[in-house]
Design brief:
By secondary structure, the protein is an all-alpha fold. It has one domain. Helices cover 78% and strands 0% of the residues. Helix 4 runs antiparallel to helix 5 and helix 4 runs antiparallel to helix 10. The structure holds protoporphyrin IX containing FE. The site of protoporphyrin IX containing FE has 21 residues, from helix 4, helix 5, helix 7 and helix 10.
Length: 198
Amino acid sequence: MRWLQGALRKVPTWVVYLAGLIPLGWIVYLTLYGGIGVDPVKGIEHRLGKVALWFLVGGLAISPVRRWVNLLKFRRAIGLLGFFYVALHLTAWLWFDMGLLLSQAVADLWKRPYLTYGIIAFLLLIPLALTSNNASIRKLGAKWRMLHMLVYPAVTLGVVHYLMQMKVISNEGWIWLAVLIVLLAARWRKFAALRSNR
Ligand code: HEM
């Protein structure tokens, strides 16, 4: 693994931001040249949601896997990309599905409760995205770490939203849930260890 770590150390963060835009390029390509599916709105919406999930859950995995591979340097980029894709996913719903009509959006939220979980997850991610910069880390000090603990409820709500929008939870859905539980448990163990060391 040392060779991998050495190679990763040489990768600049901008490469991760750039690579993170590949799924968006792919979705745009499928939309323009066919392949997005019979229902393009759903095709776009679902793909953006899935990419967001990959980045957000992937971001949570960085800390527990660091004993094997240290990706801490890329954590901010991965988190911000996750937020970016959630924002696009929300925009796709508002724009293509709701036609930017607020009354329609409110009616849809009322009709499909899982959307509320998605919205809360998005709202929780906003302060995290806004403070994902060195100036905020310096300014907020210890409070910054506390604030960024919000990522756990945010991603949990994102996964709950994803599972709730299925009529029957698929195998893939169970896998996402299992991965989330493992990641939350890893965090909890670290938390408990820190408290007992105090
Ligand atoms: C952390 C936040 C969120 C995550 C991780 C997320 C993720 C997902 C995923 C993975 C899917 C299903 C994709 C698939 O089956 O391939 C989905 C579906 C959907 N999401 Fe989200 N989402 C989030 C927030 C939101 C928000 C804020 C809205 C807008 C209110 C929203 C609206 C929708 C809609 C309309 C669907 C499609 C449901 C259907 O086809 O019936 N999501 N989301």
